[in-house]
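Side project, low priority. Logging it here so it doesn't get lost.
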Amino acid sequence: MDLTQLVLNRMDTYLLVLARTSGIFAIAPFLGSRYIPATVRAALALLISLLLLPMVPVSKAGAGDLLGYATVLLTEAAIGLVIGYASLLILVGVQVAGQILDLDMGFSIVNVVDPHLNLESPLIGNFQYLLGLLFFLTVDGHYWLFAALSQSFKALPLGAAGFLGSGLAAQGSTVGQTLATGLVDLFAQMFMVAVKLALPILAGLFLTTVALGIIARTVPQLNVFVIGLPVKTLVGTTLLAVILPLYVFTLDSALGRMYTTFFGVIGALR
């Protein structure tokens, strides 16, 4: 049976797969970038869904019930958004680290456009985001994303989300508590990545501030308010260049932990 015939025979299942896949192309790093035309992202979503269809069991979710099928369709789109958002949080953590440094290095008054979220962000924050995105693509993070999407159909089959209809009521509050815990873990890991990346440079800037304070006390004629900002900018930029290898180690371990937590969240929806 060719793919065209397979799609025609399983159109209802194909639309559910497409709904979950489309969530990734709406928000995931690089794949959901606004710089990729919407028509290209839509075409890729159609193609990826077509390739995944033979591996997905036939779904009877919402069969014969238009309202029920529409509910399942929206739920699958939400699951796809969760997958994409989980991967985006890693790069958001990198950007938050840069925004923290911007406040101490004096770059917080300079804003540039974030190419993914289409929002203004400080200079170092945007630089670190682009650096994280480059690393994400270097380690084939987009392939990890497709692998996570494929595995999600095994961890959470189509129409099996526990928050549909009476599923959550039947299971009590356990599903909701586990889901909330998983989402909190994702945000906690995002902030942990931000702290790990920003802390070494913040420590260097703190020591620079202490040194400037000592100079101000010992050499009152020297105006540290004039030289302080350029010195801290120079020290921060130098330290940023020195600890770049730390980014590789931190982001690599963060990717593994993030997807482990993500599958825990997906499992909670069953």
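Brief comment: The two ends are 32 Å apart (CA to CA).
Revisit when time allows.
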